[in-house]
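To the wet lab folks,

You asked to see what we're planning to order before we commit. Fair enough. Below is the target structure as tokens, and below that is the sequence we designed to fit it. If anything looks off to you, flag it before the synthesis order goes out.
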């Protein structure tokens, strides 16, 4: 029987080297796995986190390993490329920072052994991701194990899989279950014993024989039925040689049917099942991506509390532990590879590798219902023939590997709905931020209506939508102010528009949690994307979290919004309460000011603001409390201050009747002079982007790769892009360019502002 030894403890870590040390040096650090070297610098801003090679070294005594004929090193996550050495000899190289992979180390094992793993997250044109709005944490950030097995064993060499593939297909009330096994060195006379068990561990059926594949029929199968009843069966397969069990593997599976209908949305087990949920990144504050099981469980608990029934696991393969949680909690999952933002022709093979590992390792999970091909890959345009060809290849490849699940892409908002690329997969979703980056919240629903009218046979969904919020507050929220109040308003509007259109097959909020994006300098806390419904440390649920809970959860609750917004200047202040109960009563200093009903679950009250006031909201048996206080002057702590900003909005000289960096791009370009000024700005951006896109000296490329002329994103501002960014102030637009490695000095910004001060407003 196989034995698994976890070897997470006591590794020596050497930063910024690809050399295998001959002895422990003074710059070595003792670490335990999971580990990342970017836990701090990958989320503090500046886009300057360390990206390079680091070496992990561990001593292993063969006598302390479990007994076995063969030994495999199993690495569950090394971002984003890695090499394995045993006793100084290189055994393997792997280019995928998010999957499981194994190395047969048997032949090189001695009594005393040195295992070294060199992990590299340096820029390269060969491995995805390289351009994206999140931090590419380097390190051995998931478990490392040694597997001891018999020479006859379930295949450990095939793309990180477990050698077992289970396909349940519903035929009426029954489930036809096909079981495929993949075995290394099976001998004549060996038998495979396949057992199906129900969720309670009771044997449903057993089959035995020398055949690698077999079929079962589960009569009146208990369905895996989403969050209400995520019922799981187990398939166990053992290799028997006489009375000895040589190896055994198992996989849980669910019996369910689903389809995605362009008119009625997601259909689970024959009934309409609207998918309403979130996207999730795998990192945490001051921890990076080096998570423990309890962190994954806590993440899932919060998602379930909110009432979600679907998760988009962005933008890469997540930990197997989390896919298991999705199975157990009934989440419908969108699983994808990090083919993202910028198409790299030299990395076409890498998209195939990552997709193959994703599917092989996750095929058995009933929670997964779509395979994601790419995300926002047309950031620099949708016409690239090589990019289009690669999507067709990927799409066909997925269908060859899995006949049971459709393909999907997440399109950037600026990608036109008529583009050829949009219609390659079976299903499409869009990342729209109308009401945040540009446009208004009211643009969202009509855009989807237009797509649905134009392409009535194409299922359309929302793969990303959201806006950023930190601990800034106002009674007059406006687009782009980073206040908790505007984020709440934004999500209220989006909920009402998206959830009432049943043809939208799925909606995924961007994002469940704030996450590391070291290039970001927004909202007053650099190095993070703050679109989360919860903070990155999981300590605070923003008001928008409760807006979704009001619509999606059956657990009775009531929530008073803006608890952190205490000091208020107005004489009468607006108070919003969220609840999934039919009626809410608000008490002000113990006195009721009335009861309200609200079909949209958002209850509004106007409250006299005198002195210090205690507010208590009551809905059924639920109650919530907060405090407000009358002040004469706005509390400066509530007003956005950019952390380390080159310029803050209040530092900018404004001339009456003239433009400035505080005006939106749309307003600047209402005049001819404004358009000319913007055209000159685009030339500056093109030059800066050209300088930023020069490859570092250590960037890896194929030896025989032909250089390709790159399109510069600054020259690709079509009408869709312009519509999206027109609502941004010029200052915010320039700060957001840091995500594309484009930065302006204070002197450059002041010069731009002087130019704008000469342009009349319309």
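Sequence we intend to order:
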């Amino acid at each position: 029987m196989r034995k698994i030894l976890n070897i997470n403890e006591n590794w020596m870590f050497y930063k910024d080297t690809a050399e295998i040390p001959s002895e422990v040096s003074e710059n070595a650090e003792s670490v335990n796995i999971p580990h990342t070297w970017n836990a701090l610098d990958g989320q503090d801003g500046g886009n300057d986190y360390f990206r390079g090679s680091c070496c992990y070294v561990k001593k292993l005594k063969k006598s302390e390993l479990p007994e076995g004929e063969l030994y495999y090193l199993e690495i569950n996550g090394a971002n984003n490329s890695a090499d394995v050495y045993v006793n100084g000899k290189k055994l393997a190289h792997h280019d995928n920072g998010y999957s499981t992979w194994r190395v047969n180390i048997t032949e090189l094992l001695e009594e005393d052994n040195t295992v070294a793993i060199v992990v590299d997250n340096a820029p390269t044109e060969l491995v995805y991701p390289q351009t994206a709005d999140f931090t590419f944490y380097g390190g051995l950030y998931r478990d490392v194990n040694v597997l001891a097995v018999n020479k006859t064993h379930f295949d450990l060499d095939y793309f990180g899989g477990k050698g077992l593939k289970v396909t349940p297909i519903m035929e009426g009330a029954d489930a036809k279950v096909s079981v495929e096994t993949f075995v290394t060195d099976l001998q004549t006379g060996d038998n495979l014993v396949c057992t199906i068990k129900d969720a309670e561990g009771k044997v449903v059926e057993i089959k035995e024989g020398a055949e690698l594949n077999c079929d079962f029929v589960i009569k009146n199968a208990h369905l895996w039925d989403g969050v209400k009843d995520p019922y799981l069966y187990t398939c166990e397969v053992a290799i028997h040689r006489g009375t000895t069990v040589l190896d055994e593997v198992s996989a849980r599976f669910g019996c369910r049917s689903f389809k995605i209908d362009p008119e009625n949305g997601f259909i689970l087990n024959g009934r309409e099942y609207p998918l309403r949920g979130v996207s999730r990144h795998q990192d945490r504050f001051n921890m990076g991506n080096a998570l423990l099981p309890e962190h994954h469980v806590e993440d899932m608990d919060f998602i379930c509390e909110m009432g979600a029934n679907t998760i988009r696991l962005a933008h890469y393969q997540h930990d197997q532990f989390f896919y298991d949680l999705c199975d157990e909690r009934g989440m419908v999952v969108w699983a994808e590879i990090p083919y993202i933002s910028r198409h790299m022709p030299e990395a076409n093979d890498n998209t195939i590798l990552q997709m193959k590992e994703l599917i092989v390792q996750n095929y058995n999970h009933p929670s997964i219902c779509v395979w994601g091909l790419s995300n926002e890959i047309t950031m620099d345009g949708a016409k690239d023939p090589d990019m289009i060809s690669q999507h067709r290849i990927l799409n066909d490849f997925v269908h060859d590997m899995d006949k049971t699940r459709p393909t999907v892409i997440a399109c950037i908002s600026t990608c036109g709905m008529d583009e050829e690329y949009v219609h390659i997969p079976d299903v499409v979703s869009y990342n729209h931020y109308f009401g945040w980056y540009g446009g208004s919240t009211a643009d969202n629903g009509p855009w989807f209506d237009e797509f649905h009218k134009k392409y009535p046979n194409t299922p359309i969904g929302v793969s990303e939508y959201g806006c950023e919020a930190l601990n800034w507050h106002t009674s007059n929220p406006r687009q782009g102010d980073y206040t908790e109040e505007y984020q709440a308003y934004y999500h209220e509007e989006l909920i009402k528009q998206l959830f009432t259109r049943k043809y939208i097959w799925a909606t995924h909020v961007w994002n469940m949690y704030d996450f590391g994006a070291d290039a970001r300098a927004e909202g007053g806390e650099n190095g993070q994307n703050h679109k989360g419904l919860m903070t990155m440390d999981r300590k605070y649920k923003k008001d928008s979290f409760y807006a979704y809970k009001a619509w999606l959860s059956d657990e009775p609750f009531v929530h008073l919004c803006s608890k952190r917004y205490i000091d208020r200047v107005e004489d009468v202040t607006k108070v919003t309460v969220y609840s999934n109960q039919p009626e809410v009563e608000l008490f002000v200093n113990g006195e009721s000011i009335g009861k309200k009903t609200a079909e949209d679950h958002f209850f509004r009250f106007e409250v006299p603001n005198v002195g210090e006031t205690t507010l208590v909201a009551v809905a059924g048996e639920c109650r919530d409390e907060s405090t407000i206080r009358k002040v004469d002057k706005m509390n400066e702590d509530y007003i956005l201050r950019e952390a380390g900003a080159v310029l803050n909005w209040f530092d900018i000289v404004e001339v009456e009747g003239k433009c400035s960096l505080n005006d939106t791009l749309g307003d600047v370009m209402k005049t001819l002079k404004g358009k000319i000024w913007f055209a000159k700005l685009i030339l500056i951006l093109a030059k800066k982007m050209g300088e930023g896109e020069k490859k570092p000296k250590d960037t890896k490329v194929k030896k025989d790769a032909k250089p390709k002329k790159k399109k510069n994103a600054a020259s690709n501002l079509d009408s869709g892009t312009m519509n999206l960014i027109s609502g941004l102030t010029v200052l915010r637009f320039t700060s957001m360019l840091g995500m594309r490695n484009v930065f302006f000095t204070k002197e450059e910004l002041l010069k731009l502002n002087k130019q704008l001060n000469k342009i009349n407003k319309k």
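Structural context that might help your review: Residues 3-149 form a domain with the Jelly Rolls fold (CATH 2.60.120.260). Residues 672-692 form the longest helix (21 residues).

Thanks,
Computational group
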